[in-house]
Amino acid sequence: MARVKLEMPDGYIYRTELPLRITDINYGGHLGNDAVLGLVHEARLRFYATLGGSEMDLCGAGTIMTDAVVVFRAQGLYGMTLEAKIAVTDFSASGFDIYYLLSDIDSGREIAQVKTGIAFFDYQRGRPVKVPEAFKDKVLTAAKL
């Protein structure tokens, strides 16, 4: 079976800590794939907040997720605290990609690699819009961790 592989970026511009809750754990006793998307959603919202924005207003435009890839590297277990690092890459006319590296804060072991495609979106008109220059400026000037 062919496995999906992500080429993770070299540098990250944001980090946060996310505790694994019992609701993140599936019947197999480890982090579920559905919960990973919830965790990166939380990390993304925290990141947007540091830029003074939200999903509905990030530098003057809304955002919408267009795709997602999750690659598990190890099991996430109840009680772990994960470090979530974020990198923003691959700008297009109306969007960009966010890469997330989720690691166990105690051992440093990689738990998951995630990529989401994000488009800027006008919810009133129901269509994509151009990436705001203010967003590009903020991302390109952010310090690498």
Structural features, described:
The chain has one domain (about 15-140): Roll (Thiol Ester Dehydrase, Chain A). It has two helices and six strands. It has helices spanning about 35-50, 135-140; strands at about 15-20, 60-70, 80-90, 95-105, 110-120, 125-130. Strands 1, 2, 3, 4, 5 and 6 form a six-stranded antiparallel β-sheet that branches. It is globular, with a radius of gyration of 15 Å. The mean pLDDT is about 95.
Give me a quick take on this structure.
By secondary structure, the protein is α+β, with helices and mostly antiparallel strands. 19% of the residues lie in helices and 35% in strands. Strands 1, 2, 3, 4, 5 and 6 form a 6-stranded antiparallel beta sheet that branches.
Quote the CATH topology: Thiol Ester Dehydrase, Chain A
Tally of individual domains: 1
Low-confidence parts: none
Largest sheet, in brief, is:
6 strands, antiparallel
Structural class of the secondary elements? alpha+beta
